[in-house]
Write a structure and sequence with these properties.
Blueprint: E1 9-14, E2 16-23, E3 33-37, E4 40-43, E5 45-53, E6 57-65, E7 83-87, E8 99-101, E9 116-123, E10 128-134
Antiparallel strand pairs: 1-6, 1-8, 2-5, 3-4, 6-7, 7-10, 8-9, 9-10
């Protein structure tokens, strides 16, 4: 029953690609050059990174608000997460750290506009379950 079309709704996702370092800027907004070797500039990093995400992809899935501690049949304690999402095993390109938009149509893959991010992915025989954590806005 969890894969019935009437139980699914339109959602959007953007997969995590990589973390980009954040560079220190001078008073003009330019990156501070630390060293130049063979014509390649190396910039001063501030020790933090910013995640980058891929293209936004629409998909249909079943999502249930509020985890319940009873849903541990495939080893995922849903009481630890804000929502649960279920997809068939064969159509799951979504990984951990993926952003999910459940209530709005996103314009850009900005983490602050997402509704959830995937905290845990668990693949079973006939479905893939995701533990989702709400993004604090």
């Amino acid at each position: 029953m969890r894969f019935c079309r009437k139980n699914k709704r339109q959602l959007y996702y953007a997969n995590f690609v990589e973390s980009q370092p954040i560079y220190e800027l001078d008073e003009n907004g330019n990156k501070i050059v630390v060293d130049t070797i063979d014509g390649v500039d190396y910039y001063q990093e501030i020790g933090q990174s910013e995640p980058t995400y891929g293209a936004i992809v629409p998909f249909m899935a079943t999502i249930r608000e509020g985890g319940t501690s009873k849903a541990t049949e495939i080893g995922l304690d849903m009481g630890l997460y804000d929502a649960e999402m279920v997809l068939p095993t064969d159509c799951s390109d979504i990984d951990e750290k993926t952003l999910i938009w459940a209530y709005t149509k996103p314009q850009t893959a900005d983490p602050s506009t997402a509704d959830y991010y995937v905290e845990k992915k668990l693949v079973a025989i006939n479905c893939t379950k995701f533990g989702l954590t709400r993004v604090v806005k």
